[in-house]
TrEMBL record:
It comes from the Bacteria. Gene3D superfamilies: 3.30.70.20, Electron Transport, Fmn-binding Protein, Chain A (2.30.110.10). InterPro entries: 4Fe4S_Fe-S-bd (IPR017896), 4Fe4S_Fe_S_CS (IPR017900), Pyridox_Oxase_N (IPR011576), RnfB_subfamily (IPR050294), Split_barrel_FMN-bd (IPR012349). Residues 165-190, 192-220 form the 4Fe-4S ferredoxin-type domain. Keywords: 4Fe-4S, Electron transport, Iron, Iron-sulfur, Metal-binding, Transport. The keyword Metal-binding applies. The keyword Aminoacyl-tRNA synthetase does not apply. GO terms for molecular function: 4 iron, 4 sulfur cluster binding; metal ion binding. This is 4Fe-4S dicluster domain-containing protein.
Length: 220
């Protein structure tokens, strides 16, 4: 009996092209996003911080000098940020923070102009207990769960290297199609070797776990 294998492929839904600036603006539109740092004992810490400004490929926020968050930023500039929109677009940013040394009071004034509710929290000159920080170097990713198949793309911010994630199929592939049949997003297509459409990959690892000849490896 001749066995016929059918591979199901789905075309991505129409979407507007995005870039790094668009991702930063999405974080600004969300505004209240999660910032992760590491404390002096090496333990992860996370809190909600407002994205105050986005301009020219840079994201600005502020925090007061008395907070542990401030001390952590000054000790180790590496941060990770994540936020999600109501329609399930997740933006992640991993990068390095810089204290804005160029007239920090003027930057705080700009932040308050764009975020007038801050006047109720820090009235008058009490605002200057806040220090401005900027992230203009890192790796930013859009991960859209609101379309089918899912869509993801990674961008460099400030020329920083992007992080390779997910899986790739090597030349050891025998063309059996096990990976394609197990893929929940149907983003693997036949070829020599089979190929993963990285922009639609969940990074779940089912193809990696089920390949009978271990022809699939992690990227990066």
């Amino acid at each position: 009996m001749l066995r016929v294998t059918t591979y199901i492929t789905r075309k991505p839904q129409e979407r507007s092209p995005m870039n790094a600036q668009d991702c930063l603006q999405t974080l600004r539109d969300i505004k209240d996003v999660s910032f992760a740092t590491v404390d002096q004992e090496g333990h992860p810490q996370i809190r909600i911080i407002d994205v105050m400004l986005v301009r020219d490929g840079a994201l600005y926020f502020c925090t007061s000098r008395g907070k542990d968050f401030h001390a952590q930023l000054m000790r180790d500039p590496h941060v990770a940020i994540v936020g999600m929109t109501h329609d399930f677009k997740m933006v992640r940013l991993a990068g390095e923070v810089r204290f804005v040394t160029d007239d920090p009071h003027a930057w705080i004034d700009r932040i308050f102009e764009q975020n007038p509710s801050m006047d109720d929290v820090y009235p008058g000159r009490s605002r200057y207990v806040l220090d401005p920080f900027v992230i203009d170097n890192g790796c930013v990713e859009i991960f859209d769960l609101g379309v089918s198949p899912i869509y993801r793309q990674t961008f460099s911010l400030g020329g920083a290297p992007t992080h390779l994630q997910g899986f790739q199929i090597t030349d050891a592939c025998i063309g059996c199609g096990t990976c394609a049949r197990n893929c929940p997003q149907q983003c693997i297509t036949p070829g020599k070797p089979f190929a993963i459409a990285q922009e639609h990959c969940l990074h779940c690892g089912l193809c990696y776990e089920n390949c009978p000849v271990q022809a699939i490896e992690k990227r990066g």
